[in-house]
Backbone:
């Protein structure tokens, strides 16, 4: 009996702790006989992907990594900006799934409209471009940013949780029936936030890996 | 350690063989410690859900079933017409996922545009309404029907495979980068069709269950 | 000379007083030699169609009723949730017109954008689904709900009129050039509201019957 | 008891026979105690409104006529190009309904998608602008023109009927569930065409007058 | 060597000072060997194009003027309401460019979403119709009107500048990345406003002439 | 008197002959006292930008170049794939204009719908993504590719002209009122093609520079 090919989850930044966090959050997808969920850090990447230059530089690294791993069954780009999505799809015929797309599409599978929590006001225009490219901007109820919280802190501590809950409540008031965490860093608060708000709160990386598992 | 709540996959028609087929196609999602994937038949349902009356009657049965199973973590309506989706969502705050929506959204996670294979020309107007309701009709490259193939036969035998392959080739020519099987019956041909066409071919039930697993 | 076939206006709830109100509001459409406007109550229905279950149960009754009345020239479903619209269209080739669709489309025939007054905040998500299905959500200026007013009271008394006027003024401020009454119960206030607001206020049941008469 | 104010149906071209045809086609809307349906010819107009200059010149005449008739309850512009619609709405707060808009919106009240028969290929770009302005171009299944048939002949004789039937069959094949006659001249063939095609065939002038009657 | 044919910029109102202002604002487009930029006043026009009747009357004059000047290479309609655009295009195969369309499209070439400053709240519905006709209403971040400022004053003096700056700041807050001056009169404040706001502020007449020059 | 800052036109590929061709095609925009139109080659670029990797690598080079030239008034990315557009906009507040966007938007300023000629069938999916991102995919009449013609040859010789004319005729038949050349290489045939087809044929680089000149 053959071992199924792994699913490669790519953290385009160089923070090993982020990759560890991702891997932990995906632990329950692992089981004997199932595809391995392999989480990798791109060591040459910056500590966080924030500027557009960082996004564009990451794209090439993501492409190189995917080209070097033809043994995988599917690829997940675990960054909400999805660096290298088009490039990766030009390099392999296997599924390549971006975290933004997967998160938003999972929300649409659950509710009539969705909200997004951004880690910063600066992220919102980029997110709107991604929604427009995906063709689903009409389903967005609203997007609300955190203020003054770093990516690393967005999933830990009371201050960030309070901001997330307030953001979530604004999104509910705007009609959102599901909420997408607009940054991988926030996933540590996902379950608590879901319980506080009473609607599905989506960790886009999990959504992306789940989509990949559905295909394999 | 608690056992995770199961995911309930509802076949709204009364065909046990269809339910068995569904369950087999979901086998790899099952693992120790993971949510059970429980596939149920609605015994009072018709042998197939084809007419709008059958869809509307099924809606109430699906709602009743979901209301009677508060022990589940999520519900999947394993029929492309998604009978009872709104009703179920009015009865529970847990995730309820329709097979059509999940299949189409998975395709959008993989490709710029998607195609759908319908089991019959008569299904197409209903599918277009579902796409419009979902707000993604612009992403549809084309939908192509089989001709003279029953639901039960659509996943078995050479005649149906030949029709599926021809339909898929038409969809590729129309620009589809992923293909959604527009009927649960077709899943038996999924893998072979994917290999013949070279693009992802999506079994919407698997996509729905994967989405549910991503949330749990 | 033959008598023209009647237009059947179906009140899916069991409230005879609602049916009487509907019939009165349609009185001026009746004339010698013109199609009769026959308003019927579905006696097995609930007193009001509020929950999704009530909508879905009503769908089957509406379908049965229409199937039992092949003598009619056209059918109007006089409930803003339009229970049974798809079912009815699968059972007859004659025109079947839903009250929501007719009301919104009449507003679009009169003005660049329209507003809707909902009887309750809970109705709004369902209305948005109906608009999306119809494909005209971009023409909605805004929807504003009443608060704490029952369906039965929404067309009578000062309290409901005051709320309707305030709602209407909000819709005008949002740019609405015509206003749709989002519940059959409101029609008693239609004329007074139109005079207070200075823009067309549409009773969707009248709009639906008018559309039917245009076809016969 | 007061007499209700009339509905003014404006034929912007100078052909009295067209106005007579319109009036005859609206005969069944007339009844004692109901608003009169007054059909008027603009004598200074051209014999047909075909070029854009004719449309734009007609706009001013339509505006003048409406301004001179404040006694009416509503106004219908009985030309598919709707000359003067915005002007009229700037001059009166009473309903002003264009024939194109009313016809298309009536079709949308009846079916999931509609087709249009144009009297000439040259009309199609103008119709598409009207649909885009109305915001419903996505609901158009297709538009098919007649070839070499004059406006006056489009509602009479075998040659035009044969072309209409062929056009209608093409529209059915493209998925149209209702068909709009894209020229007032075609109404003489409406009933026969509806019987031949088995789907609603809409005379937009009747649709516009019906919408007006629904408001009065 | 031949002299290139001129570009005709048409001011549909009869204010010579507006035409002079337009011509001055276009001065830098003029150069030896380049197409002349000829700015003309329609003497029979009103002093300002404000009402819909003025728009519709201007349409015919614009058409006549264009028909009388077949020597030109392209035509710009220098009024935000674009009177006569369709008419002109029916009379010549040469490029005819409306100021609204050119301004909005230039903004879209520069930024993800744009804002519009209207000279009056009354202009906004007309602008929205123009956007819908153009098919780009989804790219509008917001439109904000001035209050109590005449067209002539909108480009001169402190009061109008203060209102423009406040309007612009509201548009930035709504996400606009570029701002379109929704009235030819405002161009006198363009440069100062752009410096105050830090995003491109577009004079639509310049955008239209630039588009014309790009074609010649 | 100060010299106006130049407009920088960036050819992201390393072909000097392409840059020379671009510069020649822009010659008439140059005049004393006007901004210089400076065309630069990115020497490290590939000879052509064809694959997605080439696009993504070019993005960084375009960003670097723009960052190194703060003396310019505006930047034009003279490649239909617009490498580095988002990056450049993150690095400067001055206008950055992509050739695709400018070409398509110029077409929309001229006609109700436009067509695109692609240099290869492989380019079409990328173009559709660009249109969707721009939000104007509904205005596309059709896109038709050349077959077996290189970028370099697409603007020279009879074989490519014949293919361009056939492609253009197909686009006219699909309703296009203006045609966008979907590759910088085609501009050598622009004028001849426009004369053959009788509708505007747009060289997107000229459209982009014209838009930039309108702002300066």
Residues:
């Amino acid at each position: 009996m053959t071992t199924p090919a792994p699913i490669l989850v790519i953290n385009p930044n160089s923070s090993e702790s982020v990759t560890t966090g991702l891997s932990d959050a995906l632990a329950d997808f692992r089981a004997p006989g199932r595809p391995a969920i392999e989480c990798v850090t791109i060591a040459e990447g910056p500590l966080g992907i924030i500027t557009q230059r960082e996004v564009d530089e990451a794209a090439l690294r993501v492409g190189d990594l995917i080209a070097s791993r033809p043994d995988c069954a599917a690829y997940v780009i675990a960054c909400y900006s999805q660096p290298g999505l088009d490039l990766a799809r030009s390099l392999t015929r296997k599924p390549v799934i971006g975290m933004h797309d997967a998160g938003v599409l999972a929300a649409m599978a659950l509710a009539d409209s969705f909200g997004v929590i951004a880690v910063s006001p600066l992220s919102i225009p980029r997110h709107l471009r991604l929604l427009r490219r995906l063709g689903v901007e009409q389903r967005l109820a609203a997007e609300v940013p955190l203020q003054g919280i770093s990516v690393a802190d967005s999933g830990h501590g009371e201050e960030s949780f309070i901001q997330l809950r307030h953001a979530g409540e604004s999104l509910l008031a705007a009609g959102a029936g599901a909420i997408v965490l607009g940054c991988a860093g926030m996933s540590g608060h996902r379950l608590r936030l879901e319980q506080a708000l009473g609607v599905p709160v989506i960790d886009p990386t999990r959504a992306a890996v789940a989509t990949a598992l559905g295909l394999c």
Q: What stands out?
A: Helices of chain A lie at 16-25, 52-68, 85-91, 99-110, 124-134, 158-173, 190-197, 204-215.
